[in-house]
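thought: fold this chain, then report.
action: predict
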Amino acid sequence: MPPILIDISRLLYRRLRRWLPTGIDRVSLEYIRHYADRARAVLTLGPFSSVLSIPDSAQAFRMLLDPCGKTQATKLISKAYLRWWLGADAAGCVLFNTSHTGLDNAGYAKGLARKGALPVFVVCDLIPITHPEYCRPGDRERHVARMRNAVTTARGIVTISRDTLEALRGFAGEAGLRMPPTVVAALAPSLPHVEPGPRPIAAPYFVVVGTIEPRKNHILLLHLWRSLVEQWKRNGRDSQDSGTTRAWNQRHDGSIPRLVIIGQRGWECENIVDLLERCESLRGYVLERGQCSDAELVTYLRHAQALLFPSFVEGYGLPLAEALSLGTPAIAADLPVFREVAGEIPEYVDPLDGRRWMELIEDYADATSARRAAQIERIKGFQATTWQQHFQTVDNFVKIVNGQE
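observation:
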């Protein structure tokens, strides 16, 4: 294997702000975990990049892999300024950029080539290009620049799904760009192997995992829960309630299911925040967990009736693989990438079909649900990708990129 460099810029800056890891960050951390003993860190400062020394790289890797460790980000950034630009020590090194950071700047990518580094970019998704309506203003233009620079300067590109690779090929074709060598390396669940804690909520509950942003479709679930709660309360006070509601109350001892939202608040989510903070019908029935450790996430997922994943678009969908790995059923949007990850195991629903989502939520909340039992049986056949398999694919690809095969 050639010498390895890993761009840690996004991880370090997010650590400095004490933000919890997102899905992209989890992937980046796995690259550090795999290559740390033979890699150095790269820190991008605007259009410039600096390779940290071996001792500073080891310190940075240790800090990033320890969520409770002391933050030395400011000190490391200062040292990077002193070392400044990629020097001759980058020549012949394979540089992994796993987060798209810096790729919107043409100087970053061209500088890598000038200094002899062999860039291998991990492309997680093209969502800002294919679905700009779910992103912040300006994100599409920035991501077009990222993907254009990636395609034109990369020695090789790793995509995390076939779906993402097809989107990238479509982008390159429309732009008249020639694709570099590529490989698909599926992601693996990143949650720790710990025993789940005791059930956190007595009532039946569902979990949705991910940053609160428009494409995750939290708004659908919140409107469904408001309807569910209001109907249940209304019918519970009415002795002439419907047979369906009576059956519901008998099965669940009058307990309405809870919705647990695990994820930090993102952008363009004002309507969701309004419902979370001001809708009285949801109070006590929808629980927001913006700060949730990995061990707590394991516990929440393991005891849930199901993971709910109604996204409009995803690059992969790690929570789906993680839930199934824990034996937890999933009700997910009918996306090609989800079928790529999970096959025919989950219940798939159009992300706009509120009626069907409601039917499945009511069914899966029932302790005697035959549909839920059938999915649990299907889950026994689920084989998640392992990180060992992911990096075996990546390491073999690096040998090709480096001309060793």
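thought: worth noting. The domain at 205-379 is CATH 3.40.50.2000 (Rossmann fold).
final: tokens above.
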